Amino acid sequence: MSLGDWIGQSENLVFLAVGVVMLAAGFWVVTSRNLVHAVLMLVVALAGSAALFLLLGAEFVAWTVVLVYIGAVVVLFLFGLMITRAPLRRDPLPLDHRRRWPAALVAVAVFATLAYATTAFFGWEQGEAVERSLTGDLGELLFRRFVIPFEAVSFVLLAALIGGIVLARKDPRE
Amino acid sequence: MTLNQFLILGSLLFSLGVYGVLVRRNAVAVLLSIELMLAAVNINLVAFGSLLGDTMHTGHIFALFVITVAAAEVGIGLAIVILIFRNRSSVNVDELDLMKW
After folding, report:
1. Overall CATH class of domain A3-89+130-168
2. Is the pLDDT confidence value at B98 over 90?
3. Cβ contacts of B66 on chain A, cutoff 8 Å
4. What's the confidence (pLDDT) of residue A2?
5. Is residue A102 over pLDDT 80?
6. What ipTM was predicted for this assembly?
7. Which domains are present in chain B?
């Protein structure tokens, strides 16, 4: 498929627009001097991923991202920033390390490796038709075929909940 | 839509997250970058589930699992960060040398 054919499909235009917005927001997340702005840009990046999931026909995953990530996790991050008195541009110490270029080099190497590995091993399966997953089908799968991983992951969530409470509360003996 | 475009976008977002983890000094910002990496993984998983002709949607199910584990990770991670802030009144990761001797 040539580039002209690829651009000609309207869903690819949507993909391109959402992808550019996601990358710009992700870049802002890792470079912003103001951490609250970084969290808000993470919201944009996650909303972009939800839009991509809708494009891929995974509606339940998309709305789960909106509810869990944008609804809960981001609020948790904002509380974390509030409690730990995050630097809002007035901090004398910079937010980043001085050695940016080695980190950028590592990131480029990671990108090259990942992009090569994934496209070389899976890219040849050119799936044209999007296989939609209805919410009911996913529920059926979760509670039949994947019920043991589902229970395991719910146990992980419970353990994390209790662990978070135990870690964050003040020690009563002090 | 081809699978490659999602794989490339996922790799780009993941490498942005790697850069953030390596370069940020604030622990909350490091956790933010980890969220970016997990979002990239989710894009790859959902693209696999939708475009590889998998009728069982294993990729979608595993994206849900990744979201759950990410929520647990943020809860624990922020609890640890708050604990460190209470003890050291700083969350800069390059000042944390408690376990180094």
Report:
1. mainly alpha
2. no
3. none
4. 67
5. yes
6. 0.90
7. 3-91 (1.10.287.3510)
